[in-house]
Amino acid sequence: MIRIIEHPGFLVSTIMLSLAAAMWWMMWAHMGNTAAMPDMAMMVNWSAKSLTGTTAMWLFMMLAMMLPAMVPMVATYALISKNEVHGAALVLRVGVFAAGYFSLWAVFSVAAAFLQTALAQTPWFEMGGTQALPVASGVLLIAAGAWQLTPIKDTCLQHCRSPMTFLLAHWKGGLKGAFPVGLHHG
Predict the structure, then answer these.
(1) Phi and psi (nearest 5°) for 132?
(2) How many folded domains does the chain comprise?
(3) For the whole model, what pTM was predicted?
């Protein structure tokens, strides 16, 4: 029987895609279910409890979308790291690398939740920030379209499109190097 740890790319891919599926299921299960997040529906004054729910929503969405996109990078990192460590040490190093990546996205999720909370208090949004007025919707669509044309977006995508190039340029060996490299990739 083949030991699965000897094939870190397969192991990483399986774990990450399973987690992504779980996040998509959680979002689907709670979609439109105001009983799951009672403070989110029709709420005008946001509280710490609703901010926690909004942050959780952003984290779930981030994980559901970013896990599949990150599979090639983490699998490549695991394959390279396999030359230095094996077994549990390899799993730990890959986990620390992924934690660096996700910690940056977790900070983004918290910032997005605070921004959503702040925008919900403006007159551009109705129903506690769950429905945008047409002008606000237009501004958000124009901003999203403008982002597509920025050089920073292309720079970010270059890291995702070529995992080996990124890792060769930014590699830091050992367990101590795993987190900063993951953070930089995030």
Answers:
(1) -90, 145
(2) 1
(3) 0.71
Q: How far is CA 172 from the centre of its chain?
A: 22
CA distances from 71 to 13, 44, 113, 154 (A): 6, 39, 26, 19
Cβ proximity of 104 and 59 under 8 Å = no
Count of positions (residues) in the chain = 186
Q: Which domain holds residue 29?
A: 4-185
Within 13 Å and on the Cβ side, how many CA atoms surround 150?
9
- Opening angle at CA 35, ends 33 and 37, nearest 5: 85
What is the tens place of the pLDDT at every residue in 22-37?
Answer: 877 776 776 655 544 4
Determine how many CB atoms are found less than 10 A away from the CB of residue 132.
Answer: 18
Q: Based on the number of CB atoms within 10 Å of its own CB, is 152 exposed (0-12), middle (13-18) or buried (19 or more)?
A: exposed
